[in-house]
Amino acid sequence: MQMDVVLDTPPPSPPREVKAVPGVATAAVGGPDDLIRSMSSSERVADEIVTTERAYVKSLEDIVKGYKEPIIVYIQSCGLPVAEEDVSALFGNAEELLALNSDLLAELETCGNNPTRIAEAFVTRAADFSVYSSYCTNYPRAVAILTLWQHTPRVTENSPKVTQFLKLCQTRLRHALPLGAFLIKPVQRILKYHLLWREMAKCCKKDTNSSNTIVQSALDAMSSIADHINTMKRRHEAAVYIQEIQSQLSGWEHDDISSYGDLLLEDSFKVKGAKSERRVFLFQRLLLLVKKKGEHLQYKGSIPIDAVTVGDFVGTGSPSFVVTELSNQSNTFELEARTNDIRSRWTTAIKHLMLNAHSPREEPPLESVCIHLLFRTCVVFTLSCMGSLCVCV
């Protein structure tokens, strides 16, 4: 198919000039191998940081200038019915990453293989790396959009043209791998920095002429960023999953389930009186029971955590436990787990949430405490009359 837009192939970039840096030793004679052999272990790691950063910035340039900018021009000139938000989500904030890492690379190029100076370049920019949170959080959506464009080209009449244009960009850039292999590189890079600095810290302990303090600061900073990125990714994935549960849930007439806090546990249980298993979700403020029906979830019951009591069957060896709503004792579920370990995990988690829910900021009146304890005693007596001794808390 003839493409509607033709891109001029730019001349290849000239090789970067290696600058001499005052105070940094260089090899007097010989090639790169001789230079590497003359380096200390920390200088070799420093060289790896700079070399891989150079390649990474080139990949960012290809993403922004070789894919995003041309495809925006192509979409606008050809009038393709591609949503602007999809294009934005596909590339995320790649321009911000390119600006940050280009600036970082420019300074690294002046540092030679001096670990102290390279570490200072990272420490001074530690806060700037927060822009990676947005990119990493958005990355799953970018993958979904790219998959839609590449593997279901007949979604719209013009989609094949988009797919072909991506391949044209790949050919123009002389990439062996498609766009998807480049979109993941920022995620990989931000999570690799702390590994490089961990190796640097080990080497600096061996090299007496290296500064450990600033290197440790760089390691701490990049480790903190990696931890933050991973935490944000997990939270985002959890939020997306909760929304998937909400979209599949029928018969639920209360607030959006995302308003009940994080999803802590999820498993299937046999429920006394029910023919089929129930899928049970434990949120921070809600215990939710549903029945799976094909791709849908049918609401079968719930108990607010601040009104729940949980009981274990004592001395029976049964992997069952009972949950009851304090203000509505008829709202009771006897759940049988697959193993005692699962039962223990669930009862412990529920009891922990109960303690948090019933930890008042101010001491409650004595009469309310007595009424609360009396009510729980009644619940224990009621459950014990069901046929098995059950200890509630």
Q: What is Rg?
A: 30 Å
Number of strands: 9
Secondary-structure-derived class? alpha+beta
Tally the helices: what do you get?
Answer: 13
Q: Main β-sheet, in a few words?
A: 9 strands, mixed
Residue share in β-strands: 5-15%
Mean residue pLDDT: 82
Q: In terms of per-residue confidence, which ranges show pLDDT below 50 for 5 or more consecutive residues?
A: 1-29, 361-393
Q: What's the order of the H and E elements?
A: HHHHHHHHHHHEEEEEEEEHHE
Task: Work out the helicity level.
Answer: 40-55%
- Whole-Å distance between the termini? 72 Å
Name the strands of the widest sheet in spatial order: 1-5-4-3-2-8-7-6-9
Globally, the shape reads flat
Keywords, separated by commas or semicolons:
393 residues, alpha+beta, 9-stranded mixed sheet, 54% helix, disordered N terminus, disordered C terminus
